[in-house]
Amino acid sequence: MNLYNINTKVYFLGFILLYQSVVIGQSLTRKEYISMYSQDAVFQMHKYKIPASITMAQGILESNNGNSRLAVKGNNHFGIKCHDWTGKKMYEDDDKKNECFRKYNSALESFEDHSKFLKKYNRYAFLFDYKITDYKSWAKGLSKAGYATNKKYADILIKLIEENKLHELDQKSEPIHFTASSSRSVYLHPNNIRYVIAIEDDSYLNIAKEFDMRLWQLYKYNDTDSYYELTKNEKVFIQPKRNKAKAKVHLANEGDSFRSISQLYGLKLKKLQKRNKHLLGHKIKSGYEIKLR
Asked: Residues 33-62: what's their mean pLDDT?
């Protein structure tokens, strides 16, 4: 689905005048999208045995590099429709008018649900007989199983994988463990920061004990405090975030906050707020341009 975003820039004149003008927004490039989400695709590969190259290619295609309305408004990167979904929903024209699509709280939730979606339905079961490095069979199989109506779907996925060397992701080994005392896997953020994924009923205290860290370190590295409760699949940095992100601008999604953007890019919250002083004290709305460097 290729829906293009109209971005909204906000200018604050002094302290009392708010002026809004609608302009064409700066979208994520394909390179930025791959850099931002490739680690999530690798994580899904080791958890569910789905080639990371396939996950990334589908994400690129279905979300238009993260710039589609479904991705921006609903964090839906794979165009998954409601079916038997009981969570949040949004409606868009697709094969038919006003079709129901799943809406997520984060992109990571979308990646996780995409994996579960392929695991759940029997029509995709045969795919898991293919080798994890056999992206061509996976692409053709997804098309055969009816994931998309485009007859050239498999060819498009294969072309995306080969042009962007996404098949190299399928060779990435299981993430190493940070310490011998922890059985938890540690991942490397694209901004070169180590992080872990929160599990069910997790806490900063549990993570601190596993990695022989001080609680204040985790609070500081993740720009939070003792009142914050972790949610399943949330990223938790175990090293300090950076002063700059690799991307220049973030196009705000529904429900974004300065902290969520800070966690997404591995960027220190104070640095992010300093670059966007004009938005402090105001709700971040979908379409706003957030400066990252």
From this structure: 90
> Which residues fall within 8 angstroms of residue 241, CB to CB, at 6 or more apart?
191, 193, 221, 223, 262, 266, 267, 268, 269
Where is 52: in which H helix or E strand? helix 52-63
pLDDT tier for residue 200 given thresholds of 50, 70 and 90: confident
- On average, the pLDDT of the chain sits at 83
Q: Name all domains of the chain by residue range, CATH numbers in brackets.
A: 6-26+243-291 (3.10.350.10), 30-171 (1.10.530.10), 187-237 (3.10.350)
Mean pLDDT to the nearest integer, 214-224? 91
Residue pair 293/245 in contact (Cβ under 8 Å)? The answer is: yes
**Number of residues that this document lists for the chain:** 293
Given a contact cutoff of 8 angstroms between Cβ atoms, the answer to whether 76 and 101 are in contact is yes
Please give the C-alpha separations between residue 31 and each of 56, 147, 160, 164, 194, in angstroms, as whole numbers: 12, 25, 12, 8, 21
> Cα dihedral angle (210, 265, 59, 6), rounded to 10 degrees?
150
Q: What is the pLDDT of residues 67-116, one digit of tens each?
A: 999 998 899 999 999 888 888 999 988 778 888 999 988 888 899 999 99
Closest CA to 187 of 53, 42, 31: 42
For residue 104, the tally of other CB atoms under 10 A from its CB is: 21
Closest CA to 94 of 2, 6, 157: 2
End-to-end Cα, the chain, rounded Å: 30
pLDDT in tens, 144-196: 999 988 999 999 999 999 999 999 999 876 554 444 345 677 888 888 888 88
- Centre a 10 Å sphere on the Cβ of residue 255 and count the other Cβ atoms it contains: 16
For residue 137, the surrounding DSSP H or E stretch is helix 135-144
